[in-house]
């Protein structure tokens, strides 16, 4: 029996000369992987973080669904033509691949990711975007750091705690992270400070999120977004 769902593309890989295996975070069922037979011959534009309406068949005994049709549910032009936004889409998809492991629906997380993708489509200043996305995503997953002070001077990575005591992390980068976790407008900062804040945040993820690794996509971001 055919089913339909909305899905956000997280990973894709070759299955045969003409087919792909696509993994989506879906509105109805969470993380699902599908075989899309003949996808390469159809020459459909299939982009990371694309939001698609998926018509598919999935047998109870199989871990993979079979795509019948794939149609864009939201038109995203700028993300897939703007080089910096395209690179950011790879990074965000990488983060989602590393953190969304459970195969069950979570409408709150699905809506958050969808809204962030739409925000990326329209946003012009991008240097704070990965920081804001990642801090909110961490909070949604329940890994938010503790706050000892409303005016912190430091951030203890291992304990996951904003502290009154100064740490060896740059104060401006800590301030930027704190404002992001408090959902405040980003403080005015240059690219160098934003990059340091993102690296601190990723170090936090390495410590507190199991098997977290986004080094490949991070390298590309550092060479493009923060130069």
Could you provide a short overview of the structure?
It contains seven helices and eight strands.
Describe the protein's architecture and organization.
The chain is an alpha+beta fold. The chain folds into 2 domains: 3-72, Nucleic acid-binding proteins (OB fold (Dihydrolipoamide Acetyltransferase, E2P)); 83-224, de novo design (two linked rop proteins) (Up-down Bundle), CATH 1.20.1440.120. It is built from 7 helices and 8 strands, in the order βββαββαααβββααα. The chain has helices at 39-42, 83-99, 107-122, 129-141, 171-181, 191-208, 215-224; strands at 3-14, 20-26, 30-36, 51-57, 64-72, 146-147, 154-156, 161-163. The strands form 2 sheets. It has a 5-stranded mixed beta barrel. Strands 6-8-7 form a 3-stranded mixed beta sheet, covered by helices on one side. α3 (107-122) runs antiparallel to α4 (129-141). The longest helix is centred in the C-terminal third of the chain and has 18 residues, at 191-208.
Multimeric state: single chain
Q: What is the global morphology?
A: elongated
Span from first to last CA? 51 Å
Task: Name the helicity range.
Answer: 25-40%
How many domains make up the coordinates? Answer: 2
CATH topology group of the largest domain = de novo design (two linked rop proteins)
H-E order: EEEHEEHHHEEEHHH
> Which regions contain 5 or more consecutive residues with pLDDT less than 50?
none
Tally of contiguous helical segments: 7
What's the name of the CATH homologous superfamily of the largest domain?
Recombination protein O, C-terminal domain
Strand content: 15-25%
